[in-house]
Automatic annotation (TrEMBL):
Organism expressing this protein natively: Candidatus Manganitrophus noduliformans
Family indicated by similarity: Belongs to the class-III pyridoxal-phosphate-dependent aminotransferase family.
SUPFAM superfamilies the record matches: PLP-dependent transferases (SSF53383)
CDD domains: OAT_like
Protein name: Diaminobutyrate--2-oxoglutarate transaminase
UniProt keyword annotations, A-Z: Aminotransferase, Pyridoxal phosphate, Transferase
Biological pathway: Amine and polyamine biosynthesis; ectoine biosynthesis; L-ectoine from L-aspartate 4-semialdehyde: step 1/3
Lineage: superkingdom: Bacteria
UniProt EC number: 2.6.1.76
Name of the top EC class for this enzyme: transferase
GO biological process terms, semicolon-separated: ectoine biosynthetic process
Encoding gene per record: ectB
Names of required cofactors: pyridoxal 5'-phosphate
GO terms assigned for molecular function: diaminobutyrate-2-oxoglutarate transaminase activity; diaminobutyrate-pyruvate transaminase activity; pyridoxal phosphate binding
């Protein structure tokens, strides 16, 4: 810790939420140098949907390293990449009737977004991109220009241009339909809003506060894009790879976006990797027009291909949905019990949020949870939403254990912070277990 304090930049942040020196991790658990065990309800911000060091991926990785398999290859053809492309095509695209060209844009989520924005501008010749209130798409300049959060945007140090923000689903409450609102702006030549090259959207805004877009809202957004010649970009970086249940979060809406950004859990193992999926007609790049050194991370390709075995049937989706419902039910009980402190939970599948009505409370709760052995984060522009994002492979017992730590932390903090608020106990551990 001392060397970190002394020479690592002040820019770090998660280490303040989780002040320990971590050493090992397995499945749904992380361990610090004191040997303390933490239940992980954070999943590496969505990069560890299959847990830490999944044994079957580790085995494939070790075998590959042992035989001196190629590690770095830019965009040269490698056996590891060909296997991954084959698996992605046969396991993910073909069964869903989806047709995409696959671009390796660079190792991180923001690389996938930058490639998508650049390509949409090239295809349409238009300059603007439309994004949504509370969106988060990454920290490089193009991605920041379509991100809502003022603190992150200010970090750019220059004006962020060529994007227009529109209200996300439900932004003004139920009264105002935000697709109608957008339609009015786009069809009125006096509105001052230019037709954009693309609209970029998350079906569930994760960093933005677990804001869920209704499926019919997404369908109408797709129609609006078609009507106005704007490409539809789905940012699946945090809520793709099964986080909401199906592999792609847009599947239940029956959509086929023009461009899809994937990263985080696509490698399955926490290794950096990203993909930009492009409808074949839009694959209009010239060779080398969007380049980068680290687009051929073969170790990630090995684990990514192995991770796709989870998706050979619908079973995994069903399990995720079942667990997600159990988490939601438990959070609803908490919200009912502490109705002056929490709003109703929201989320889809295994990304669930519990919004706090009191400023600063969510951070106190996650800090208390950490002290009690649970890693979980907050979301939203004011950090006011408790974010529940366990690994998708979590077993019932660990899920219950993590939820109970969260409940105990809420009891401790809410009892302390607001003695006048409802602090009724939340039921016995045995009763709680029944909800999972
Ligand atoms: N898009 C979404 C929806 C994200 O949640 C994130 C990161 O949290 C990004 C893009 C950026 O990904 P990265 O941090 O890997 O650049």
């Amino acid at each position: 810790m001392e060397i970190t304090e002394r020479i690592e930049s002040r820019v770090r942040s998660y280490c303040h939420s989780f002040p320990a020196v971590f050493d090992k991790a397995e499945g749904c658990f992380m361990y610090d140098t004191q040997g303390r065990e933490y239940v992980d309800f954070f999943s590496g911000a969505g990069a560890l949907n299959y847990g830490h060091n999944p044994p079957h991926m580790k085995e494939k990785l070790l075998e590959y390293i042992e035989r001196n398999g190629l590690t770095h290859s830019l965009d040269m053809v490698s056996t590891a990449k060909e296997r991954l492309l084959g698996q992605f095509s046969s396991t993910i695209l073909e069964p869903r009737g989806l047709e995409y060209k696959i671009q390796f844009p660079g190792p991180t989520g923001t690389n996938a977004v930058e490639a998508a924005l650049k390509l949409a501008r090239k295809i349409t010749g238009r300059k603007k991109i439309i994004s949504f209130t509370n969106a988060f798409h990454g920290m490089s300049l193009g991605s920041l220009s379509v991100t809502g959060n003022a603190f992150k945007r200010n970090g750019a140090g220059i004006p962020l241009m060529l994007s227009d923000t529109m209200p996300f689903c439900g932004y003004f409450g139920e009264e105002l339909d935000t697709i109608d609102y957008m339609e009015r702006f786009l069809s009125d030549t006096g509105s001052g809003v230019d037709l954009a090259a693309a609209v970029i959207v998350e079906s569930v805004q994760a960093e933005g506060g677990i804001n869920v877009a209704a499926f019919d809202w997404l369908q109408r957004l797709a129609e609006l894009c078609r009507r106005h010649g704007m490409l539809l970009i789905f940012d699946e970086i945090q809520v793709g790879c099964g986080r909401t249940g199906p592999f792609f979060s847009f599947e239940p809406a029956g959509l086929e976006p023009d461009i899809v950004c994937l990263s985080k859990s696509i490698s399955g193992y926490g290794l950096p990797m990203a993909l930009t999926l492009i409808k074949p007609a839009w694959d209009q790049w010239e060779p080398g027009e969007h380049n980068g050194t680290f687009r051929g991370h073969n170790l990630a390709f090995i684990t990514a291909a192995e991770a796709l075995t989870y998706w050979k049937s619908d079973r995994f989706t069903e399990e995720i949905q079942k667990k997600g419902k159990a988490v939601h039910r438990r959070l609803q009980e908490i919200a009912d019990q502490y109705s002056r402190v929490f709003q109703p939970p929201r989320g889809r599948g295994m990304i669930q949020g519990l919004p706090c009505s009191q400023a600063g409370l969510a951070k106190k709760i996650t800090r208390t949870a950490f002290d009690r052995g649970l890693i979980m984060e907050t979301a939203g522009p004011e950090d006011n939403v408790l974010k529940f994002m366990p690994p998708l492979i979590i077993d019932e017992e660990t899920l219950t254990r993590g939820l109970e730590i969260a409940v105990e932390s809420i009891e401790e903090v809410v009892g302390r912070a607001a003695p006048s608020s409802n602090t009724v106990a939340l039921g016995s551990a045995a009763e709680r277990r029944e909800t999972i």
